[in-house]
Design a protein that fits this description.
about 230 residues, 9 helices, about 0% strand
Length: about 230
Amino acid sequence: TSGAGADTGGTTLVIPGEMAARIDRLPASWVVFEIALIVQLGWTTTGATDGIAATLYPFIWLPNHAINHSQYSVLYAFQVGISILLGGYLIGWLGDRIGRRKALILSTFLGAVFIVPFGYVTNYPALIFLSIGDTLGFAGYLALNVTYTSEMAGPTARSRIIMFAQVLAIILGLSIWRGVIPHYMVPGQYKAYLWLLAGLNVVVLLLIIWRLPESPRWLEARGRTD
């Protein structure tokens, strides 16, 4: 059967909420855990790009007199404050409009594209622009990572699955991306470090494209039952 509703010519009548009810009955499984883990890895790889000004300023921009303390404060406020607010609202809204999967793809793409130029640009207006664009990706994950994962798992399993995925992602992700690796690469190889962060986001982007489906709850709520 096509799974389409009777009013669209399908052979199976789909009652609103039927897919959500089916998902709610599913037990915890590797399928759902894999989905949660990929999303949380995306949260860590985009999160590793968040606040990159704090990593580069004392070692790169300050010694080279690229920006002063006041400019850094404004730059940091844009990166971890204003951009987070705007990105969370904008990409969260897009997640409702175009789908969770597409919004996560966009968030990961932003994290990959905007991080590398920080190694080559010292123009202050350009740094402001890069800070806003780069952190939009992380903001998208803040808005969607738990929402999407919750929609893929039943109520008896989702809290446990999300918790384990987040713990693994934080331990294996942020502690390495933002702790161990920059300790050895910044400032001596800071450009290579930025390329590494971009590469990590590209890997997650490919995983999302390859392994993550659209949220069945989102599809069903919009009548896309095929």
